[in-house]
Design brief:
There is one protein chain. By secondary structure, this protein is α+β, with helices and mostly antiparallel strands. It has four domains: about 100 residues, Carboxypeptidase-like, regulatory domain (Immunoglobulin-like); about 70 residues; about 130 residues; about 140 residues, Glutaredoxin, CATH 3.40.30.10. The chain is about 45% helix and about 20% strand. It has 16 helices and 15 strands. A seven-stranded mixed beta sheet has the order 10-9-13-12-11-14-15, with helices on one face. A four-stranded mixed beta sheet has the order 4-1-7-8, covered by helices on one side. It has a four-stranded antiparallel beta sheet with strand order 3-2-5-6. Helix 3 packs antiparallel against helix 4, helix 4 crosses helix 5 and helix 10 crosses helix 11. It starts with a helix and ends with a helix.
Length: about 475
Amino acid sequence: MCNCCFGQGYQVTLQAPQYKSGIAYLTYYWGTNLNVADSAAVSNTGTAIFKGATKLPGGIYVVVLPGKNLRTDFLIDKEQLITIKIPDTTDLLNKTVVTGSKENVLYVQYQKYVAEKGKQLEDERRAFTASVTKQDSALHEKNYNLHNTELNAYREGIIKNQSTSMMAALLKAMKEPTVPIARPHTRADTMVNYNYYKNHYWDGVTFMDDRIIRTPFFLKRIERYYQEVLPQSSDSIIKDIDYKLLLARNNLEMYKFLMNWLTDEYINPKYMGQDAVFVHLFEKYHSQGNTSWLNQKQMDIISRRAYMLMANLIGAKAANLEMLDSSGKPSALYDVKADYTVVVFWDPNCGHCKEEVPRLDSIYQASWKNHNLKVFAVLTPDEKENAKPEWEKFINEHHLGEWTHVYKTKAMEDADFAAQKPGFRQLYDISLTPTLYLLDKDKNIIGKKLTILQLNELLEVKWKTKS
């Protein structure tokens, strides 16, 4: 009768007689976090019942006991009428009994074996570190390798002999590729290993199985792949994510997980030029209605960020800035003729600008101007007329007369707004000052949002390459 009643839903019964009250939580892994799937009050007999009319998606779930200090995890897959008995909270691993799910029999066996092997591996590692003779070192290294081999063999046995189990699917998804050359001696050997590792990194993962996203390890694999394994050029990343999202297109949960992580990762990228990845995600997926689960506020944030980046991607033609110079005459960025142009957006009342702008001129005078580089400096405050006296005073006091200094009056900005022309803040993504851009002879963007030292290093590379 119970099986019939809950055939379309779930019921997880917690029996923990040590507790007489409180709230227990049924949670699941989502990246590094535990998300709450359900909660239940604990009765005076220590029983809490989590139940719902819809089946839970598969994955590793965690029951968090009242007080949130203790927890125990288990698998949920097809069988969802499960009882968890905890007679003793001092040894949750060995005393907890999960019934109603064959998957958890294998999971508990695996947990106990891994705990034992993990202790043996740690003991051998410590013994190796403390070794004082070559013989001791060799012995503990041998023992460590033996335990590690046994652990891997145990995992392979589950994958082979329990191939249809959820445990096998999880182990395949966790499995690291074994490189072909154990001890590389040349750069060619290293490249062979790298290419093999990259090409086989996802061998055990099917992007149609969303059970693996409700685990503590899948997010780490995603992060490592995109941050360390894959080449960090935007072209390589874009090609790869399009393929991954294509694989996941028929599994909404996997698709959502990947899209959400990729959007968060590249909306404020760690490396210059990777903002092209975020713009690609916006243009191909977000703006096409392929992320319908996001609310309006989230879409507004994503859209605004994309529009701030579209005009200033690395390799793109820099937007022309038509302004007035310090004498009130028209002056445009494209009027500057130089092999390289540094565009600096700054505010004379900004404390950081007061430090960095003189440093920028020092390196300009010492080196840059000898390479036919010119500086185009844009005044950024909203009330520019009020800032003009401070601006002119700063320019004169720090002898910045060799730069082209420009600004726009409020009337000019209002006219642009009325004509629906984007302002320089949107065109160059200006939210902080100072902000530095580097343009080549044809006004293509080759560097953006760099520190002075980073900008100098980039220029030195360019000059060396040119020579």
